[in-house]
Amino acid sequence: MSTRAPWLAGLATLLVLPWMSPSSYFLHIVILILIWGFVYTAWSLMGKFGLVSLGHGAFLGTGAYTTGLLWNFVGLTPWVGIPIGVVLAMFLAVVIGYPCFRLKVVGHYFALVTLALAEVARLSIVAARDITGGSLGMTPNGVPTPSWFALQFSDKRYMYYLALAVWLFGLWVWRRLDNSMVSASLEAISEDEGAAASIGIHVTRQKLNVTIVSAAMTALGGAVYGQFVMYLNPDTLAGVGVSLQIVFAAIAGGTYSLLGPTVGAALTIILGEALRIWFGTTWIGSANTIYGILLVIFTIYMPKGIVGLIMLWLPPRPFPDRRSVR
Predict the structure, then answer these.
(1) What is the pTM of this model?
(2) How many independent structural domains does the chain possess?
(3) In principle, which of 3, 21, 148, 305 could form an S-S bond with 27, CB 3.0–4.6 Å?
(4) Which residues lie closer than 8 Å to 203 by C-beta, 6 or more apart?
């Protein structure tokens, strides 16, 4: 019970947070951290096993743009549009993942393939400017009365609880995968694919499965983010820039820990807001520049991220005495 007490206290704090929020802006930042924390958690499902994807912006944009376009042109509620976007992202993951895993495209080569995928997604959105708004972006059409049907709310507390539910779902998936035999199989594959295959592990299937789950979760996060900010842009929801941001945040927070990606989300959101307030438009691209510098620093000196460093400082937990249990 003692190990669950901090988690229950944290959950209770999150549940009452909207009613204790000092301002609407503070709640806005917390919602962004929850949504992006979910997206970064989705990426870490692959990253923790050595599957470094630089193309998750493609899945993010697929979820966001599919939901927005279906609402604008068909009037389809996001409750239906979001699952369609998730399915399309899963299909995209199969199209790009199966040939790579079947042909043993691994390491830097796999990262380059996914990098190209992100850029193709961004250029496709820009090329379809008559539908997507191109580089100028698009706005999902508003409704006279915000409602759950449209997933548009005048009160941010509704979106907060939706983002909280999505974030908790991401932690549940991460934990289930981490405690399953799939995790052991993927760890064996990351160490030596040949040895893993020799003991009966289906390498292609396992890698493809985790890629599909990661892509689906990323698309879900992109759709929720699009419904929250009500503005879709290829530079912020697809392409190389946002893909590298996802990689940086997950690594900085801690890819191998449950809350690491969320800590990375808090770091990137707060840093981005601070740079916007301090520099405004006088230093365009400052966030990406700083992300790149910090990524190198974290990779060299803090490979397990912020949470991993904190865990090293904490005293080790003693193993339970089995005699006392009996």
Answers:
(1) 0.90
(2) 1
(3) 21
(4) 101, 189, 193, 196, 197
